[in-house]
Amino acid sequence: MPALKTFRPAAVAISLNSPGGSATQSELIYERIRTLAKQTKTPVYTFAEDIAASGAYWLMLAGNEVYANRTSLVGSIGVINSTFGAVEAIKRLGLERRVYTAGKYKGLLDPFRPVHKDEEERLAEMLRDTHDSFKAVVREARGKKIAGVNEEELFSGRVWTGRQAAHLGLTDGVAPLETKMRDKVGDNVHFVLCSEPLRRGLADVFGVRAGLSGLGGLLGRQPDFYSVTSCASQALLDELQYRSMMARYGL
């Protein structure tokens, strides 16, 4: 058996395009990236595409240097918890809500009963604490680059364009991934794209096989035309985006 060859990248470039997500998952991924970067002494560069907001901006901070496009949306340094209230709706339906708990706050902010002030206060405490954790990561990662900036505005949950973010110190400048990495590594840089394998077969590309097998088994019915075409359209868009990325990096 031939010996396995080890691969040591000159740098890692992470492209982000997301409005955010779980604070905990963002924290875990951020810590993992920073730990591996320190262990391997590999520089990490992060780049915002259309949007890197909230949890995605948290991930951007894992880079030794952080960049965005001029028109990218960056920031949203805040925390949100959204729910709904259906108290009147459940009354109109003639339903009675029955919830049994052990622990005063176990049914915190149940949407089917009126809001209790003390429960709102408990939730606000959790949101503030998570927000404080987010702000601490920003301060640690950006350091003097955000010194002098109005923190109340910076941490208000606003999003900024790439140029605004660079001016505020939230990023290190405006630059697309390929151009910046050639500046950092050299013109002979070779990009190794880390992503899912390219799908094979016409049926898979257009999502028909998955649509037929998944939708057809639902309650024993044949899939409707809208569901199949919707699935196929999304699969085609995914495939085009993937092939575009492959072409961008010469793969």
From TrEMBL:
It holds the Pfam family Peptidase_S49. It comes from Coccomyxa subellipsoidea. Transmembrane segments: none annotated. This is Peptidase S49 domain-containing protein. InterPro entries: ClpP/crotonase-like_dom_sf, Peptidase_S49, S49_SppA_C. It comes from the Eukaryota. Belongs to the peptidase S49 family. The keyword Acetylation does not apply. Gene3D superfamilies: 2-enoyl-CoA Hydratase, Chain A, domain 1, 6.20.330.10. Residues 38-175 form the Peptidase S49 domain. CDD domains: S49_Sppa_N_C (cd07023). Keywords: Hydrolase, Protease, Serine protease.
